[in-house]
Amino acid sequence: MNFSSFKHSSGFRGVAVGLTASALVMSAAVLAQGADAGHRSQRIIGGTEVANGAHPFSVALLETGHGSARDRQFCGGSVASPDVILTAAHCVAGATSNELEVVAGRTVLSDAKQGQVRAVAPEGVVVHPRYAKNRAYDVAFVILAKPLKGISPVKLPTAGTDALIRPGQKATVVGWGNTDSNMGNFPDRLRQVQVPLLAHDECQVSYPKGYDSSVNICAGAEGKDSCQGDSGGPLFRTVRGRQDPLQIGVVSSGDGCAEQGAPGIYTSLSSAKLWKTLDESAKGREIKEWLRR
Question: N or C: which end of the chain has fewer CB within 10 A?
Answer without folding.
Answer: C
